[in-house]
Write a structure and sequence with these properties.
Layout lengths: L1 H7 L3 H8 L14 H16 L5 H10 L6 H10 L32 E10 L5 E9 L5 E7 L4 H15 L4 E4 L8 H10 L2 E4 L9 H15 L7 H17 L11 H9 L4 H4 L2 H4 L10
Parallel strand pairs: 1-4, 4-5
Antiparallel strand pairs: 1-2, 2-3
Helix pairs in contact: 3-4
Organism: Novipirellula herctigrandis
Protein name: IS2 transposase TnpB
GO molecular function: nucleic acid binding
């Protein structure tokens, strides 16, 4: 009707007379039925419970609950309520790349590059255990094996802080893109200390080959050779195995010296910056605080 009024420049009254329609028909505004409001309320309740369901699945749930509704009506109520399935958000990936691989950026001296990674196992009762391994890439010295049911980024910071106070702060730290390693807390803390983080390319564990090699030895010579009765038992056995690995196990890439022997031979020739105290290396006069 409005289109005819604009085309012929006539009033609503004249247009209705020509088409033989009552003028009230042009002013009618449909009112939603009470049934629609009731169904919409149920739809919203189901959507809150199943946010990833589309209108067809919600319609099936309504029909199973005894409601009489077809897909066409369901779609109309769905659109009227402004509903839609939210888009999946892609997980944030780290900016790691192949240029941080161990064969591209190798360690040149003690405390040049540390590497860390997780290994998973379980106790005899089937409960999960996590092992956080930290190794000096140049000397192959295992600095720590932290054992726990759950190891968060805060636990990782505490472990690094203890090692930094004992061995000094490394120049770089190589790791994969695990959630604990890419956490904002760890990034900020390491940046404050002036430690560069070398994130390897996602899905490329061979780029952290030295740590993966250590993980393989840990599985083959420790985890697969003994039963872990509890978390405390695993912690004691891991400490004993780490001491044996550092002090008694000959390493082929070190000329069959143990990591401890090789580290002692390197101590006199290591660059001064790699062996300076924590507060000097990080250019801070304050002691280390862990948040």
């Amino acid at each position: 009707m409005q289109a005819l009024q604009r085309k012929f420049s006539v009033s609503e009254r004249r247009a209705c007379e020509v088409l033989d329609q009552p003028r009230s028909s042009q002013r009618y505004v449909g009112q939603p039925k009470d049934e629609d409001a009731r169904l919409t309320k149920k739809i919203l309740e189901l959507v809150r419970q199943r946010p990833r369901f589309g209108y067809r699945r919600i319609a099936v749930l309504l029909r199973r609950a005894g409601e009489v509704i077809n897909d066409k009506r369901m779609y109309r109520l769905w659109k009227t309520a402004g509903l839609k399935v939210p888009r999946k958000r892609r997980k944030q990936r780290s900016s790691g790349n192949k240029h941080n691989a161990c064969h591209v950026v190798p360690a040149g001296f003690t405390n040049d590059v540390w590497t860390w990674d997780f290994v998973h196992s379980s106790t005899v009762d089937g409960r999960t255990l996590r092992f956080l391994n930290i190794v000096d890439e140049y000397t192959r010295l295992c600095l720590s094996i932290k054992v726990g049911r759950s190891i968060t980024s805060e636990d990782a910071i505490d472990t690094l802080a203890e090692l930094f106070s004992m061995h000094g702060v490394p120049k770089r730290l190589r790791c994969d893109n695990g959630p604990e390693f890419i956490s904002s807390a760890i990034k900020r803390w390491l940046c404050t200390l002036g430690v560069d983080v070398l994130y390897i390319e996602p899905g490329s564990p061979w780029q952290n080959g030295l740590c993966e090699s250590f993980n393989g030895k840990l599985r083959d010579e420790y985890l697969h050779q003994t039963e872990l009765l509890s978390e405390a038992d695993a912690r004691l056995k891991a400490r004993a195995w780490r001491e044996d690995f550092n002090d008694h196990r000959p390493h082929s890439s070190l000329g069959y010296l143990t990591p401890s022997e090789f580290a002692r031979r390197c101590a006199d020739s290591a660059p001064f910056a790699a062996r300076t105290p924590l507060h000097q290396h990080s250019e801070q006069s304050e002691p280390l605080f862990v948040s």
